[in-house]
Design goal:
17% helix; alpha/beta; single chain; four-stranded mixed sheet; 34% strand; 140 residues; Signal recognition particle alu RNA binding heterodimer, srp9/1; 2 domains
Length: 140
């Protein structure tokens, strides 16, 4: 069994895909636009939605992140969750945190904590909340 996050960018999915490619090294493993669907959408979409992303799959490290434009009608809203990005060292944490914060909002600056040499929280430019931390060995 797997649990995979599925994020709806409400019309900004292409922009989000490019952002995650450049900041996190995301690889697009599948992308389907509304105009390429074998069936018509089951709900009303704006007239210019045919080029929007109906479904895409991104590979980031060992994780699959599913994304789409959803209803294509405004600002995306991400509430009640955070994606956790666990990295191997402090330099990588600093680099990725800064990249995610570009155009976003730092919620908790990166700092040493009792559970990690580096931990911080940031909402990226789309409003997706991220927790960035350096992984520790179980003996620490």
């Amino acid at each position: 069994m797997q649990i995979q996050p599925y994020l709806f960018f409400d019309g900004r999915c292409d922009e989000a895909i490019e952002f995650y490619r450049s900041t996190l090294g995301a690889e697009v493993t599948m992308l389907l636009r509304f105009k390429d669907s074998p069936e018509p959408p089951q709900c009303a979409l704006p007239a210019d939605a045919e080029d929007k992303v109906m479904h895409a799959s991104l590979r980031i490290g060992e994780t699959t992140l599913l994304v789409a434009d959803g209803m294509c009608c405004g600002q995306p809203s991400f509430q009640g969750f955070s994606l956790t990005l666990t990295v191997a060292n402090e330099n990588e944490a600093d680099r990725l945190f800064a990249a995610l914060a570009d155009g976003g909002q730092v919620q908790l600056p990166l700092a040493k904590t009792f559970f990690s040499p580096r931990f911080g929280m940031v909402a990226d430019r789309f409003g997706v909340s991220w927790m960035v931390l350096v992984g520790c060995s179980e003996s620490v």
